[in-house]
Design goal:
The complex is a heterodimer. Chain A is mainly alpha-helical. Chain A has helices at about 10-25, 50-65. Chain A is about 40% helix and about 0% strand. Chain A is elongated and about 60 Å long. Chain B is of the alpha/beta class. Classes of the chains: A mainly alpha, B alpha/beta. The interface between A and B is medium-sized, with 17 and 25 residues.
């Protein structure tokens, strides 16, 4: 098909136009800078609480019999 | 070029413009007026109320780390510049008014803090970051604009004010 022939200039032009029109059709709703309060909430953090995560990781690695402790700010449990 | 090609090019340009962000308020531009209620207390404040004086307008929110850092520093600056024809006005953009009130109870400031619940002012001022601040001269024109906050901004602000105050 002509549209899929990437060497055909007409096909390239139609593909560019199609992509541009797709951009118009997609419901883009940019978040304004002052609307980002919810992203700043602690519960929205990907990392979560470092110490709790370290403790969970320690329990997990103990159950898995894996070696090594996990460090976190404030120190670990000292049992390794 | 045929009409069809011209139309397609126009649509491509329109798409590009739609995706591009609007330019922020630039130095030299006249700042749009606002008429907003005080966050604490009765009454409104308009930008026009500050004509003939310099005014530093700060857009902030309680959830914004640099904003929380800047407010006590602005309060100190406000005390320092008292009586020198420099006003500081903060416009709060918190989604929930109570968040701002609780923050101010812990970090009180003596300069006016206004509330823009509809966020029409940051839209008109083309705010691109939080916080954003603008120094305006006596005619309401933007002298300097800052996106974000760093400690060095205070020195830059002092320098800009001194330059405006010099004969």
């Amino acid at each position: 098909m002509r549209l899929l022939n990437c060497n055909h200039p007409e096909a390239i032009r139609r593909m560019v136009i199609s992509l541009a029109m797709l951009g118009l059709l997609v419901a883009c709703a940019p978040v304004q800078p002052w609307e980002r309060g919810r992203l700043a909430l602690t519960r929205m953090s990907l990392e979560g609480d470092a110490l709790l995560e370290a403790m969970d990781e320690h329990v997990y690695s103990s159950k898995e019999a894996a070696s090594g402790g996990i460090e976190a700010a404030g120190g670990g449990c000292g049992c390794n | 070029m045929g009409a069809r090609v011209r139309l397609q090019c126009a649509m491509l340009i329109a798409t590009s413009l739609a995706c591009a962000g609007a330019l922020a308020l630039e130095p030299g531009e006249l700042a749009p007026d606002f008429d907003l209620p005080l966050l604490q207390g009765e009454g409104n404040r308009k930008l026009a109320d500050y004509r003939q004086d310099m005014v530093y307008v700060d857009f902030w929110a309680s959830w914004c780390g640099p904003c929380r850092k800047s407010l006590p520093l602005y309060e100190a600056l406000h005390q320092e510049l008292a009586g020198q024809g420099v006003n500081i006005v903060a416009i709060n953009l918190d989604e929930h008014e109570q968040d701002a009130i609780e923050f101010l109870e812990q970090h009180p400031v003596s300069y006016p803090v206004l509330r823009d619940a509809s966020a029409s002012t940051p839209v008109a001022w083309q705010v691109k970051a939080m916080p954003s601040s603008y120094l305006l001269d006596g005619s309401g024109r933007v002298v300097r604009a800052w996106a974000g906050f760093e400690s060095s901004h205070l020195e830059e602000l002092r320098d800009a004010i001194a330059e405006l105050q010099s004969p």
